[in-house]
Design goal:
By secondary structure, this protein is an all-alpha fold. Helices cover 63% and strands 2% of the residues. It contains eleven helices and two strands. A two-stranded antiparallel sheet has the order 1-2.
Length: 292
């Protein structure tokens, strides 16, 4: 329960500066903006462009480069080049995007970008050091396959958690996290048992990761440029709330046409809230203490 000062009939401001309606509902998206991850963003979101397409494009690129290595489409002699590209595109850039999503108050996107950014940052740094002969112990004793398998399994399990959460949003996100989980499971099994076919399956699932991340990124860009979801992400029927919240990018959060559409969709709820606030018999929030 938020505690704060008394506000207008339409709502008030809590102790950390966020607008809160008197009924405890989220504020209108005409003020707050959103993206394809289905979450509202902070009041200052219109000052920031949506960083999600950057992270998605770079993560997809890193997945495709890694898949080329797993499938042996690239010679082993250039592994250190691939590790260098994936270190930046799959590790550093998603971590920066994660920080920007935190500023935008989009926690789900921030957690996912930080999770996979940290994976690529660690995995590629390790591979780069090994490929360039910096770890003498590894050159002497060989790769710690059990440790790599354990790391891959942990990230695969985290992906399963994200699959469950994405079911509240859209099919594209569910396909993305499913592909990631299957890729990591296959790569973990292939590392331990030296199963070349399983490793190749992990490579093909990594290609699927690239396709789905780029699909989501293009959907975000098209939405930002045109203001309309021409590229579908296939929202679930029970995810209509999140679909409405993602109907605009942060750059279009103050578009008067978008404001009018969102205000119309909330008119019945706002009317009920205003009537309750104007009713003298309703003491909720009258003492200026309780907000929700």
């Amino acid at each position: 329960m938020f505690r704060g000062r008394k506000g207008s009939a339409a709502g008030t401001v809590d102790v950390i500066g966020r607008h809160v309606n008197r009924d405890g509902a989220a504020p209108d998206m005409a003020i707050y903006g959103g993206n394809a991850f289905g979450h509202s963003v902070s009041p200052t979101a219109h000052l920031l462009a949506d960083p999600a397409p950057i992270g998605l494009f770079m993560f997809g690129l890193a997945s495709a480069l890694s898949a080329g290595n797993y499938l042996r489409w690239t010679p082993a002699s250039i592994s250190y080049v691939i590790f260098t590209f994936t270190f930046v595109s799959g590790g550093l850039i998603p971590l920066v995007v994660s920080l920007l999503e935190i500023i935008r108050n989009n926690m789900f996107a921030a957690v996912t970008f930080a999770t996979y950014g940290s994976f690529f940052l660690s995995y590629t740094f390790f591979g780069l050091m090994y490929a360039t002969g910096q770890f003498s112990a590894l050159l002497r004793d060989g790769l710690p396959l059990e440790g790599l398998q354990f790391a891959l399994l942990m990230y695969a399990l985290l992906s399963v958690v994200f699959i469950g959460l994405s079911i509240r949003m859209n099919l594209a996100l569910t396909c993305l996290f499913t592909s990631i989980a299957l890729a990591y499971f296959c790569l973990a099994i292939g590392l331990t048992h030296d199963e070349r076919r399983v490793t190749k399956a992990g490579g093909y699932f990594s290609i699927c990761v690239c396709i789905t991340t780029w699909w989501l990124a293009i959907a975000e860009l098209v939405l930002d440029v045109t203001g309309k979801p021409y590229v579908p992400v296939f929202w679930y029927p029970w995810g209509q709330d999140q679909k409405m919240h993602s109907a605009m990018s942060s750059r279009r959060a103050l578009d008067p046409h978008v404001q009018a559409a969102i205000a119309e969709s909330h008119s019945k709820r706002n009317l009920k809230v205003n009537r309750q606030a104007a009713d003298p018999a309703n003491n909720g929030g009258a003492d200026g203490q309780s907000v929700v």
